[in-house]
Specification:
7 helices, alpha+beta, acyltransferase activity, Aminopeptidase, twelve-stranded mixed beta sheet, disordered N terminus
């Protein structure tokens, strides 16, 4: 075997504050990047064809960046997971990815209505911000899925179309946040601590999923943390199917 192909001789160059290139005879054979998320955490990504190039990029990147650092991998990608573990990251949590049916005949949500005194509908900025602050006080917010973490200063007017809110006595008490992807993603389903176990979460899902069904969208997706037993039971109970899992890894 040609050793130059098996073990590429590369030079790692830091091309900007958070970007690195791996060069082989001036040809880019790998790229590494650290991207800040809305909650301020830095997430790593490395794109390379060779395992050694990946290792060299990781060795160059990690010492020069503030800790902690995170990345997310598809658990089915054993090779990529092993590369990050080899670089010194450890598993922080697992999230199940669900495919969620929208047909009320499948979800069993067709007859679900909000509890007395609760309405479900579009978000209004003031009450939404108030709810956002309350949920942050109740929930370990950095434990939310990385791609759906809201801005540290709360939602803005531009975010309103992504939210459906449950309101009681003029105050928002629960929400669903939808990422507008090709297959809509239910990024966050949350209810105030004092209003849980009353059917508000099911009413929110009935409203949102029913709306998707009316628009001809057969499935949505959702990610649920493995340790969130209540959310797992909620999605399992409406016929959602586990389609895979993702690992969030960290180095501190």
């Amino acid at each position: 075997m040609n050793s130059s192909k098996a073990r590429p001789a590369v030079v790692i160059t830091r091309v900007s504050e958070r970007q690195w290139h791996a060069l082989d005879d001036d040809r880019v054979v790998g790229r590494g990047e650290a991207s800040p998320r809305p909650d301020g955490r830095l997430f790593l990504s490395i794109d390379s064809w060779h395992g050694e190039v990946f290792d060299r990029l990781a060795q160059a990147m990690l010492p020069g960046l503030p800790k902690p650092l995170y990345t997310v991998v598809d658990e089915a990608d054993a090779e990529l997971t092993a590369q990050w573990l080899r670089a010194g990251l450890t598993v922080r949590r697992r999230e199940w990815e669900y495919l969620v049916p929208t047909d009320p005949a499948v979800t069993g949500l067709g007859d679900v209505v909000p509890p007395p005194g609760v309405t479900v509908g579009p978000a209004v900025l003031g009450p939404l911000r108030e709810l956002d602050d309350a949920l942050r006080a109740e929930v370990d917010w950095p434990d939310m899925p990385a791609e759906v973490v809201a801005r540290p200063d709360g939602p803005t007017a531009a975010d309103l179309p992504r939210f459906t809110v449950a309101a009681e006595s003029g105050r928002a008490v629960g929400l669903v946040r939808v990422a507008p992807l090709r297959r809509p993603r239910l990024g966050l389903v949350a209810v105030r601590a004092g209003r849980r176990r009353r059917g508000i979460g099911r009413a929110l899902l009935a409203h949102v999923l029913g709306g998707f069904h009316d628009r001809g969208i057969p499935t949505a997706s959702a990610e649920v943390k493995e340790s969130n037993e209540a959310a797992l039971a909620l999605f399992d109970g409406i016929g959602a199917r586990r389609a895979g899992s993702a690992l969030e890894l960290v180095v501190r």
